[in-house]
């Protein structure tokens, strides 16, 4: 989870999303580095949905067709 105003963390979080097949990424709008303090209700809802999905074995690997072949997400020539 990352705030869209937390520019120092956006690229690393996108890299993790691209390279870990079971990862997910929630981006909170108009939120900085302390998402849990800035948007506690949204933060708690996202975490609760994640934990619930894991508990019922519903957190799956992404469809392989959505995976990028590079860590930058940019197409190769």
CA-based gyration radius: 14 Å
The average pLDDT score comes to 88
| Overall 3D form | flat
Uncertain runs are: none
Instruction: Summarize the helix and strand pattern as letters.
Output: EHEHH
Largest sheet geometry: 2 strands, parallel
Strand order within the widest beta sheet? 1-2
Q: What gap, in angstroms, lies between the N and C termini?
A: 31 Å
Number of strands: 2
Helical content band? 40-55%
Number of helices: 3
Estimate what percentage of residues fall within beta strands.
5-15%
Class by SSE composition: mainly alpha
Structure description:
- Helices cover 43% and strands 5% of the residues.
- The protein has three helices and two strands; from the N terminus they run E-H-E-H-H.
- The chain has helices at 7-19, 35-38, 40-55, and strands spanning 2-3, 27-28.
- The protein has a two-stranded parallel ribbon.
- The longest helix has 16 residues, at 40-55.
- The N and C termini lie far apart (31 Å).
Q: Which helices and strands appear, and what pairs or packs with what?
A:
Layout: E1 2-3, H1 7-19, E2 27-28, H2 35-38, H3 40-55
Parallel strand pairs: 1-2
């Amino acid at each position: 989870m990352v705030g869209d105003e937390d520019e120092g963390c956006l690229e690393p979080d996108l890299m993790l999303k691209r390279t870990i097949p079971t990862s997910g990424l929630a981006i909170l709008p108009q939120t900085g580095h302390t998402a849990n303090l800035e948007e506690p209700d949204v933060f708690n809802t996202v975490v609760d949905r994640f934990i619930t999905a894991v508990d019922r074995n519903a957190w799956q690997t992404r469809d392989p067709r959505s995976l990028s072949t590079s860590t930058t997400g940019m197409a190769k020539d």
